[in-house]
Specification:
The protein is an alpha+beta fold and 513 residues long. It contains 16 helices and 20 strands.
């Protein structure tokens, strides 16, 4: 493939984002001060390594600080050129070429080149789809790299240039080869706006500004992420000034923030959709195998009341686990709250007195949501026991495909309807406990369809079939409250929309003394 055979797909000036002038970095003062967050989960060293990202958005919490990607979601552009200045796609849609920024260095001084791009792609564990579609990665020069696909695949940039996997986030090849994967997790080195300083397991992660960051010099010198699993403790620390942002407050604590004139209530999220997954529906002997039982479970839940109780009404009741703003999303109305109809359906299915439904596996740390769902199910005769567990154990169990009963799951993959469906609906999806042959065939067909209208029709058909068969029970598109302290000038919440946490972190600012 010659350069003449390539046609322009995207060329964007990567020196300006969110309306900022290109020369702002030169005029900016050195970073100062320390900003602290209270996180609602315990940080895992696995999240320090882009190569370990597999089907979760949570690691990007850290990646946006320590690392950078060729292309990534940024303010105003969910596929923004970053380490890549631009990219092109060939006329036959089988070759993507990236022009890399030159002169960039990793935190340890190693130069950034196409070798790091190729190395990072091949070591990424959570990108099976990408690895299946890419025939080879060719280094054209230190600042150019080409991805050759086996066949045209319209979602290459969706999977490589958004937060679907960590394959497009770059690590230093020489350093990783020298210290090994375990050594890298203990002392990660990246290209992001902040450098790793220390990690005390279960306590905190400390990072310092990297003044050589290509986009702009961070304003804040030191960032501290503290693991604080109790919502009441997070709020207490915020009130005492021990942290500046307390993520994910439960409704009572959020109301306290709302009443406190020294604090600010902020909302973020919008990317994750919570849904019920009927894990045993593929077993003919299970009550969940009956569509009427799954439908009854959907009518048993008051989605708006759950949003009011859990997120002060900010989360939007959902009829689809594909967010409505995604390309190829099919608008579907949420199931209405109708417990009488739920009981009638259960009786028709042969369960007039309800049934013992086993365990409810609730995504941590949203245990009050799980308790409320257990109550709604109990009211119509579906008896569940909630099994609270630590976040890592929860994901290990669900991905093992050995869990039984009901799951309150979530999907937070970026991209479009195809990427969002990919991990749940096809039989071979990461979180799929079963599937339908006709939907599997449609999903495979749409993946190679380059005609947008034909592809949209197929993806709409998949979503319609999933809804008609009551494959799952969408709950709501999750938007949650956090508390912001009086020292904060810019918390960087929802600068990237949708996104749950502060980002990009080079944008956070403290008020001047």
């Amino acid at each position: 493939m010659t350069r003449r055979g390539l046609v322009l797909a995207v060329i964007l000036a990567g020196t300006v984002f969110a309306g900022r002038p290109a020369d702002e970095t030169a005029a900016q003062a050195k970073p100062e001060g320390e900003m602290r967050w209270a996180l609602y989960v315990t940080l895992s060293p696995v999240w320090f390594d882009p190569g370990e990202v597999a089907g979760q958005i949570t690691p990007f919490w850290i990646l946006y600080a320590l690392h950078d990607a060729l292309v990534k979601p940024m303010p105003g552009n969910l596929m923004s050129p970053s380490l890549a200045e631009s990219w092109t796609v060939s006329a036959d849609q089988r070759v993507y070429e990236f022009k890399l920024r030159e002169g960039l260095k990793f935190h340890n001084g190693d130069p950034f080149t196409a070798e790091d791009v190729k190395f990072s792609f091949h070591r990424a564990k959570g990108s099976r789809t990408l690895h299946d579609k890419v025939r080879e990665v060719v280094i054209v020069s230190p600042s150019r790299v080409r991805f050759h696909l086996h066949e045209p695949w319209p979602d290459f940039m969706t999977f490589y240039g958004t937060m679907v996997s960590g394959a497009g986030w770059i690590v230093p090849k020489k350093y990783v080869e020298r210290v090994g994967d375990d050594g890298f997790k203990k002392a990660p080195v990246g290209l992001g706006p902040y450098k790793f300083v220390s990690h005390t397991p279960g306590i905190e992660l400390v990072m310092e500004a990297y003044e050589g960051y290509w986009r702009k010099t961070p304003s804040v010198k030191r960032l501290v992420f503290k693991s604080v699993t109790e919502s009441t403790t997070r709020l207490a620390m915020l009130k005492r000034g021990e942290v500046d942002i307390a993520y994910l407050l439960e409704a009572p604590q959020a109301q306290e923030v709302k009443r406190d004139p020294n604090l600010t209530l902020a909302f973020s999220g919008g990317i994750a959709v919570f849904f019920l997954d009927f894990l045993d529906q593929w077993d003919p002997k299970s009550p969940w195998h009956d569509r009427r039982v799954r439908l009854a479970a959907n009518y048993a839940i008051d989605r708006q009341a759950l949003s009011d109780a859990e997120t002060l009404g900010a989360s939007k009741p959902a009829g689809n686990h594909v967010p409505p703003t995604f390309e190829f999303a099919l608008p579907l109305e949420p199931y209405p709250y109708d417990p009488a109809r739920a009981k009638k359906l259960l009786a028709e299915a042969g369960y007039p007195n309800g049934f013992d439904a086993g365990d409810l596996h609730q995504l941590p740390p949203y245990f009050s949501l799980g308790e409320a769902i257990v109550g709604y199910m109990q009211a119509v005769g579906i008896r569940l026991r909630m099994r609270p567990m630590e976040r890592g154990a929860y994901f290990a169990l669900i991905t093992s495909k050995k869990a039984k009963g009901l799951c309150v799951c979530t999907s937070s993959l970026y991209g479009n309807a195809a990427s969002r469906l990919s991990e749940v609906i096809p039989s071979d999806g990461t979180y799929a406990y079963g599937g339908y042959p006709d939907i599997d065939a449609l999903f495979k067909q749409q993946a190679g369809e380059t005609d947008r209208k034909k592809r949209e029709a197929m993806l709409h058909q998949i979503q319609r079939l999933v809804h008609e068969r009551v494959r799952y029970g969408p709950i709501y598109q999750y938007v949650w409250p956090s508390g912001v302290g009086p020292r904060v000038a810019e918390p960087a919440l929802m600068l990237i929309n949708p996104y749950p946490w502060s980002a990009p972190l080079e944008e956070v600012r403290l008020k001047k003394p």
